[in-house]
Every structure is written in structure tokens, then in C-alpha cells.
Amino acid sequence: MAYCVYILRSEKDGSFYIGHTADLEERLKRHNHGKSLYTKAKVPWKLIYQEDFCSRSEAMQREREIKEKENRTYIGYLVRMSRS
After folding, report:
1. Which of 12, 34, 53, 62 fits 40 for a cystine, CB–CB 3.0-4.6 Å?
2. What is the dihedral sign for C-alpha 74, 79, 42, 1?
3. What predicted TM-score, i.e. pTM, was given to this entire model?
4. What is the chain's pLDDT, residue by residue, as a tens digit (84 residues)?
5. Which CATH number characterizes residue 61's domain?
6. How far apart are CA 32 and CA 39, in angstroms?
7. How many domains does one find in the chain?
């Protein structure tokens, strides 16, 4: 089963959410329908970045790396590099 790390941006206030999942489409629906406690107050969310992995442990490790560096500059860098 494949997993991915994703970054969402709130269209309400511009904040970011970083997570991992095996089903990105379903997870994004849950975020935008207020089914996630942390993100429901900042709906709607837009997917701005994703990175795919072969295992959940790899995805979790990458999520932690991104969260440790979390700032607008680094997230902007990831988004720009993914569009190159």
C-alpha cells in the first residue's frame, strides 16, 4: 500500500496543515467536510503539496521532518520544487 505526505493551505486564513495518509482523496474530503478536529475551523482547505512513499513509516518520518522545519519559506520551497 502506498502512502503520501501532504500539505494543505487553508483558504480561510492561509495557515498550513501537514499530514500523511494512504488515501489522499478521502482524507482531503474529511478535512473539507469538518470531520477532522484540528482542521474543521479553517475550511476550506486546498492541497498544495504531496510526496509519495512505499511505506507508512517512510511517510511518517518525512512528515516529522517537514514539521520540524515548518515555516512559510520551507513550505514555499517544497511547493516550488514540486512544480519544476
Report:
1. 34
2. negative
3. 0.90
4. 799 999 999 999 999 999 999 999 999 999 999 999 999 999 999 999 999 999 999 999 999 999 988 677 888 888 888 875
5. 3.40.1440.10
6. 8
7. 1
